[in-house]
Amino acid sequence: MSALIHHFVVHRLIVNKEEKIEAIPRDKCLAVTPEIESLAHQINHSFNAKPGKGVGHFVSEVPRSADASDSDEDSSQENTVQNVSGFAEGLKNYLSAHKAGGDNVEDAFHDFSVDATHRLVKTLTDTGTVETGFLIFCQYEYLSTQFLMIALLNTRSHVEVTNSLDLSSREHLDLARMQLAVRFDLTQWDIQPDQQRYVSFIKGRMGRKVSDFFMQFVGCEELVDVKQQNKQLISSVDAYLASESLDPQEQHQHREEVKSYFKEQIYAGESLSVDELANRLPSNEETKNNFAVFTDSLEVPLEKQIQPDPAALKQLAKFTGQGGGVSVSFERKLMGDRVFYDPATDTLTIRGIPPNLKDQLNRQSSMD
User: Fold this and answer.
1) Are 236 and 302 in contact (CB under 8 A)?
2) How many CB atoms lie within 10 A of CB 82?
3) What are phi and psi of 131, to 5 degrees?
4) Which residues of the chain have pLDDT under 70?
5) Long-range contacts for 173-180 (Cβ within 8 Å, ≥24 apart)?
6) Is 89 helix (H, G, I), strand (E, B) or coil?
7) Per-residue confidence (pLDDT) for residue 83, from 0 to 100
8) 41 Ramachandran zone, left/alpha/beta (phi>0; psi -120 to 50)
9) pLDDT at residue 61, as a whole number
């Protein structure tokens, strides 16, 4: 990530002696050194590589109607709206200071991060959730776009060998297991807030959604299921290539091109563009038909910009599935060559069984 790091600060969440979540804030932002730039790059890369992210927006403040009564229910709803919009309000105030410039911008970012950290502690307490670790706030600029990354990281111990051949145990941030992180596209929030696509977040581990407490902390709601969007995109690519009457080898080559485009965008942290894909896939100049036109004609058209899901790369490369005690996976290019499917009989025929599987089958046959 060749990015300009504006501000970087880290605070800590612990469980204190009273067994309550407590924030230990850092007194000021860290100086942006090459080490900080490297860490920011690693965090951003880990975030981009996480599959199954969600996309959303800040919960909008709902104005009360003119004839709304002052009932307890209305009052409760108003308080809830104020709670979920507090983070956005604090971020908005900081960004105003950032645009104004001056000598106190770094202090404003630090104050915002401390206030947000205490807000997270309150959310954890209210939801009865226990999460500890290092809470990182990083504002950076990449390709003329402003971003804010917030990530909660834990540490992992490792052993080092010193120059004198002694063993030393040290702790490092465990980026590989980053599960709680959210990134705000500040530029889009400022210019195109109505698109409601300026927040992206890791959805959680073992089926648990981050929105249970982390998204409540920032006051956001999920609008787009990235995993489902990518699944629809891959299905659309398959359908389009099939409609072009290409032979299996040509279809494989075009899928590899789509796969390369996916990797490029994931690495860069950029969205997939349907129009860009249309330029990379075959088109018919006479009928002016291309992938973008094809997707517009679908019953449920694709969105023009889609956040790539790393898990979708497997769908481009392989057919895979499991159920009823059977697990099958094979490369797409083998369909019609070594693997044949008959939908009428629901039968899959494989020619050239892998040697290790064949050996197991032969040994089992000899015992029967």
Assistant:
1) yes
2) 12
3) -135, 130
4) 1, 61-85, 204-211, 368
5) 173/39, 173/134, 175/42, 175/43, 175/46, 176/46, 178/43, 178/46, 178/47, 178/50, 178/151, 178/153, 178/202, 179/204, 179/205, 179/210, 180/131, 180/151, 180/152, 180/210, 180/214
6) helix
7) 42
8) alpha
9) 47
Query: Which helix (H) or strand (E) covers residue 152, if one does?
Result: strand 145-153
What's residue 63's pLDDT? Answer: 40
What pLDDT score was predicted for residue 210? 55
3-state secondary structure 271-292: CEEHHHHHHHCCCECCCCECHH
Cα→Cα distances 101→30, 96, 107, Å: 19, 9, 11
The distance between the two most distant Cα atoms of the chain, rounded to a whole number of Å, is 83
Segment 102-138, tens digit of pLDDT: 788 999 999 999 999 999 999 999 888 888 999 999 9
Q: Quick one: pLDDT at residue 75?
A: 43
Cβ contacts of residue 225 below 8 Å, gap of 6+?
54
Do the strands 145-153 and 272-273 form a parallel or antiparallel pair, or are they unpaired? unpaired
CB atoms within 10 A of CB 312: 24
- Cα–Cα distances in angstroms (integers) from residue 130 to residues 10, 121, 191, 214, in the given order: 19, 9, 36, 12
Six-digit token pair at 362?
Answer: 């032969």
- Residue 335 to residue 247: CA distance in whole angstroms: 12
Tokens of 257: 């091109």
The reported pLDDT for the residue numbered 208 is: 53
Q: Residue 65 gets which letter from DSSP?
A: P
Q: Which two tokens stand for residue 196?
A: 């409601």
| pTM of full prediction above 0.85 | no
